[in-house]
């Protein structure tokens, strides 16, 4: 088979380090019968050891040439599509169980992929993703740190997350310009009576000018919603813990 020339526009950095591949597979801990979906299988560096353990695996690949190669593998179900258009609810219905989602994600669209999957969190058992380490630092950040922001709040309310593996650039071909890491994300039970769209709007506004006090970024918006509860707006967005944002969104009338 002709060697595949990596395509930059698809964020293609292929894993070549066997020790790292083993480490990622160990963290995922695939078991036969798991309903697993891999995003961006590429040249099958993770796909091969995963499917050996699982027996069956669904993969979502946008690159037509790579999808064609993968189709020759009888144990794979290949979905040739942009993952941002994939309905993971339908995949879960087909599997008849909650999904385990994994992937060495294309870094140029990693945040949109995380937000896309957020909608299907109740159909997902867990997620393991390779991402830029800097993005994972922001995902798992604590309040009152410079990494704490919109991404931290919007993911922490819905997932328990941990950084499980550091991955240096030389583990890939071609090497990316940044350090990478693997994050484990396990959906939490959704808090009652929470409109995610409202939480998203609130958090976006709060962090729109992170150096300003919330009085300036949120004050009028809260008044317009006739909010009369307790919420200290004499703070900066980065000082407010996730559960306070959730409680505030729960106390407001829904936007939909
Ligand atoms: C960083 S590479 C990882 C490849 C392989 N899993 C590995 O670890 O060596 C990202 C993969 O995602 C694929 N990809 C890029 N954009 C995509 C999208 N929107 N939907 C699905 N797959 C995509 C790329 O073609 C590539 O195979």
Description:
The chain is of the alpha/beta class and 256 residues long. It has 2 domains: 180 residues, Vaccinia Virus protein VP39 (Rossmann fold); 56 residues, Orthogonal Bundle (Helicase, Ruva Protein, domain 3). The chain is 34% helix and 20% strand. It is built from 11 helices and 9 strands. Strands 4-3-2-5-6-9-7 form a 7-stranded mixed sheet. The radius of gyration is 20 Å and the shape is elongated. The mean pLDDT is 95. The protein binds S-adenosylmethionine. The site of S-adenosylmethionine has 24 residues, from strand 1 and strand 3.
Mean pLDDT: 95
- What do we call the CATH topology of the largest domain? Rossmann fold
Number of domains: 2
Helix content range: 25-40%
Question: Radius of gyration in whole Å, from Cα?
Answer: 20 Å
Shape: elongated
Ligand roster: S-adenosylmethionine
Q: What is the CATH architecture assignment of the largest domain?
A: 3-Layer(aba) Sandwich
**Based on DSSP secondary structure assignment, what is the total number of beta strands?**
9
- The quaternary structure here is single chain
Distance between the termini: 52 Å
- CATH class division of the largest domain: Alpha Beta
Provide the spatial order of strands within the biggest beta sheet.
4-3-2-5-6-9-7
- Number of H- or I-type helical stretches: 11
Structural class determined from secondary elements: alpha/beta
The CATH superfamily name of the largest domain is Vaccinia Virus protein VP39
What is the helix/strand order? Answer: EHEHEHEHEHEHHEEEHHHH
Flag low-confidence runs. Answer: none
Q: Mind describing the biggest β-sheet?
A: 7 strands, mixed
């Amino acid at each position: 088979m002709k060697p595949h020339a990596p395509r930059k526009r698809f964020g293609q950095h292929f894993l070549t380090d066997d020790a790292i591949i083993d480490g990622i597979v160990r963290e995922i801990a695939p078991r036969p019968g798991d309903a697993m979906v891999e995003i961006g299988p590429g040249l099958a560096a993770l796909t091969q050891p995963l499917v050996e353990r699982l027996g069956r695996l669904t993969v979502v690949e946008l690159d037509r040439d790579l999808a064609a190669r993968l189709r020759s593998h009888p144990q794979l179900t290949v979905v040739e599509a942009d993952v941002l258009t994939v309905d993971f609810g339908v995949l879960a219905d087909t599997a008849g169980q909650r999904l385990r989602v994994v992937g060495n994600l294309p870094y140029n669209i990693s945040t949109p992929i995380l937000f896309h999957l957020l909608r299907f969190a109740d159909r997902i058992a867990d997620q393991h993703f390779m991402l830029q380490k800097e993005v994972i630092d922001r995902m798992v950040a604590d309040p009152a740190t410079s990494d704490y922001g919109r991404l931290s709040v919007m993911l922490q309310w819905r997932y328990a997350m941990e950084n499980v593996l550091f991955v240096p650039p030389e583990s890939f071909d071609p090497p990316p310009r940044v350090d990478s890491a693997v994050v484990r994300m396990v959906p939490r039970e959704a808090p009652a009576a929470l409109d995610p769209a409202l939480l998203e709007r609130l958090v976006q506004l709060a962090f729109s000018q992170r150096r300003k006090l919330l009085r300036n970024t949120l004050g009028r918006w809260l008044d317009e919603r006739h909010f009369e509860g307790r919420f200290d707006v004499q703070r900066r967005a980065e000082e407010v813990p996730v559960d306070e944002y959730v409680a505030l969104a729960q106390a407001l009338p829904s936007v939909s």
